[in-house]
UniProtKB/TrEMBL annotation:
InterPro entries: DUF3419 (IPR021829), SAM-dependent_MTases_sf (IPR029063). SUPFAM superfamilies: S-adenosyl-L-methionine-dependent methyltransferases. PANTHER family: BTA1P, METHYLTRANSFERASE DOMAIN-CONTAINING PROTEIN. This is Methyltransferase domain-containing protein.
């Protein structure tokens, strides 16, 4: 501990408890030599140690207290006075571990932290059904490993049976955990676990108090009290209760389920922050991504979003997380609430890392991690600065991937994720055609004219060559793995191409086939970008693709010193909620009539197209739920690979008016990314039956009913 803090000054008292007289004597001599008078060595059975015997002076200075016989039968308190209790490689050596773990709560103060590090072996079969372990990354040890290490440690009477850790996690709440391997000693499995009292809020909370607070705060922080705990309710509240009496978040459902079974809450409820909402990481819909994010940076122009939306302090925003860049841009405008949603847990881990870094790091470190994509001290910063601000799952994720930022030979953050395949293909093409030097020249160009000349003479002939288009870019597997283009979106691109002037005009220049459709889509994307935006100084989206990093002159809004000054304030992310789920699942559980803005990016392109006016299918269901979640006048911002996406008709059939605010005609650039063919804002103008709570008719009816009852 002395490597990290000044033990004599940081702690008022330190009690070292061990049952070995010889080890205790060695410890006493060490502390006497160091002059640490606040450290007291107690030679006692850990099952019987009581902190109050020493803190209250009952022992009279003795190393073993003298108690009356009756005192041994007094019930131990629910909590004690220790701010920190640690067990280092000792839980596996105590035969009667149940009683020792049971005694921990009587030692730990109400807001104290418990820390354990020890060896272990365990199969994922034992724990895959539990939601309170803090995550299962790296926890599974294969059969041969379990058999070998258990037998090896048995020789020294060190027991690695899983029940020790299982009971620890059952008796206390998990804050953070990590499952690691000591590779220097044959990859011995060991774990680090941080926990606290099992009951949330306080160790004396009654069950009904816990449920009431979770009910009010299921998507908030369990350490906060309900904002409105009045007996009386207004008409809007009553209307919501009548039309949606059972709206509950999945976090609430999980919490109540655990409490009813006398289990700890999921680790999300014990975090320092309320940003990340509980999700079940063992569901197939989350595991399908194989612990990899697709996007290391976001492909939506934050400047255009800001101009279109003009967010204010009363706005409640729902948006897809992606890499989190635009979520941070929205947060700079200080709306009342931001719901960030992504089905891929890793995308939300990336957003969490950015939010934690704003909270804990100075701008210089923040820039190295997310501007340059590399930081030699990332692992140290993760452990010492960022870990208190991360959920257990996000902490495990980045601890396992610290080498992304620390590897000298690696290319850093922006050469990771699914999007790295597109960047690597461009790097390969530029080498194959000998234009790597031209890429550097383009980034260093001083004027648009110079940039255009380099593009048309050196880079474009290579990148947009028939070889690249036919063999690489038009591959459905490449489009999904590298660019996140699903088959339905690809079909929309092909459909637009089939009716384009290039195919149906009097002098056709292309055929109605996939390779031609993708080639023309790339031309309509890239040529206008080069013609109208300066990549070296004002287009960070393409700058990072070409350079592998951002520059002080060219970067997203969230990487500016001004953004850091805004988002590093203590309350900057109080309104942020990070959901790991489908959009439809989240909006179905949001109080009706409360959203003001929903930003769904190009997600509607992923749905199967339905016949006009059918009113069925995934798109129609999601649009109907968006209508119910949005207040009157609420807006949906979306982008599409089609100039006239089919689902705009569905919006108009479900109480919205659609307005095209960006149309990428050939040669025209709608924003600095220019990756999409159109951009739309759909405004809610009509409630769907049943009426959205808060509408005048329903509020009026509710008031009338209340008056009649009076």
């Amino acid at each position: 501990m002395s490597e990290f803090l000044d033990v004599p000054k940081f702690f008022s008292s330190v009690y070292l408890v061990d049952f070995s007289p010889s080890l205790c004597e060695v410890a006493r001599k060490r502390f006497a030599r160091l002059g640490w008078s606040n450290v007291k060595v107690i030679c006692e059975d850990a099952r019987k140690f009581r902190l109050e015997d020493y803190e209250n002076g009952l022992s009279g200075g003795r190393t073993t207290p003298t108690r009356s016989s009756a005192s041994y039968f007094e019930p131990r308190p629910d909590h004690g006075g220790a701010d920190l209790v640690t067990m280092s490689y000792s839980l596996s050596m105590i035969p009667d571990y149940y009683s020792v773990i049971d005694s921990l709560t009587s030692l730990l103060s109400p807001h104290g932290i418990m820390g354990v590090v020890d060896f272990y072996v365990q199969s994922k079969v034992d724990v895959s059904f539990r939601n309170y372990t803090g995550g299962l990354a790296g926890r599974h040890v294969n059969f041969l490993g379990r058999t070998f290490w258990r037998s090896w440690f048995d020789l020294d009477r060190v027991s690695l049976e899983p029940g020790r850790r299982d009971y620890l996690e059952y008796r206390l709440g998990t804050i953070l955990t990590a499952n690691l391997r000591n590779k220097a000693l044959g990859s011995i499995p060991y774990y680090i676990w941080l926990g606290c009292h099992k009951k949330p809020f306080s160790s004396s909370s009654l069950p009904h108090e816990i449920v009431e607070r979770i009910d009010a705060l299921a998507t908030e922080s369990p350490y906060l009290f309900p904002a409105n705990n009045q007996k009386g309710t207004n008409a809007l509240t009553r209307a919501v209760e009548r039309t949606a009496p059972e709206i509950r978040s999945k976090a609430f459902d999980a919490a109540v389920g655990n409490l009813s079974a006398n289990l700890p809450l999921p680790s999300f409820f014990y975090q320092n922050h309320h940003w990340r909402i509980y999700y079940d990481d063992q569901l197939e819909k989350h595991m399908q991504f194989n612990d990899e994010y697709i996007y290391a940076f976001t492909w939506e122009d934050s400047h255009v979003d800001a101009e279109l939306l003009k967010l204010g302090p009363d706005d409640v925003v729902l948006a897809i997380t992606s890499a989190g860049d635009n979520i941070l841009s929205y947060a700079m405008q200080s709306p009342a609430r931001i719901h960030a949603i992504d089905l891929n847990p890793s995308q939300n881990h990336l957003l969490e890392l950015k939010v934690a870094s704003f909270t804990a790091l100075p701008y210089e470190d923040f820039w190295k991690i997310f501007g340059e994509g590399k930081h030699p001290e990332f692992r140290s910063l993760l452990l010492s600065k960022l870990s208190p601000h991360l959920s257990s799952r996000a902490f495990q994720y980045w601890l396992d991937r610290a080498s992304i930022f620390t590897n000298d030979r690696g290319r850093g953050l922006y050469d990771t994720g699914g999007s790295k395949h597109a960047i690597r293909v461009f790097r390969w093409v530029s080498r194959l055609f000998g234009c790597r030097k031209a890429v550097k020249q383009l980034l260093e160009s001083k004027t648009l004219a110079e940039q255009r000349q380099i593009w048309h003479s050196k880079i474009r002939p290579a990148l947009l060559s028939p070889l690249v288009s036919n063999i690489v870019v038009s591959s459905e597997a490449f489009l999904w793995a590298a660019l996140g283009v699903p088959k339905n979106q690809l079909a929309m691109i092909e459909a637009d191409h089939a009716t384009s002037e290039a195919v149906t005009g009097p002098s056709p220049t292309a055929k109605n086939k996939r390779s031609h459709a993708i080639w023309h889509y790339m031309v309509n994307t890239l040529d206008p970008v080069i013609e109208t935006t300066h990549v070296g100084t004002d287009n960070p989206y393409y700058h990072v693709c070409l350079a592998g990093e951002f520059s002080p002159q060219c970067h997203p809004d969230y990487l500016s010193p001004r953004a850091h000054a805004i988002l590093s304030r203590p309350d900057a992310f109080d309104g942020l909620r990070i959901h790991t789920d489908e959009i439809e699942e989240v909006i179905a559980r949001i109080t009706p009539g409360t959203l003001t803005v929903a930003i769904v990016m190009d997600s509607m392109d992923w749905f199967d197209q339905q016949p006009a006016g059918a009113g069925t299918g995934t798109a129609a269901r999601q649009i109907a739920k968006l209508n119910r979640a949005l207040k009157m006048g609420g807006r949906v911002l979306l982008r599409s690979s089609a100039r006239r996406p089919w689902y705009i008709r569905e919006f108009e059939a479900h109480g919205f008016v659609g307005k095209q605010v960006g149309d990428r005609e050939p040669g025209r650039c709608i924003d600095r990314v220019n990756m999409y063919a159109s951009c739309w804002v759909c405004t809610k103008v009509e409630n769907l039956p049943p009426p959205t709570p808060g509408s005048e008719a329903e509020v009026g009816q509710g008031i009338a009913e209340d008056l009649l009852r009076l």
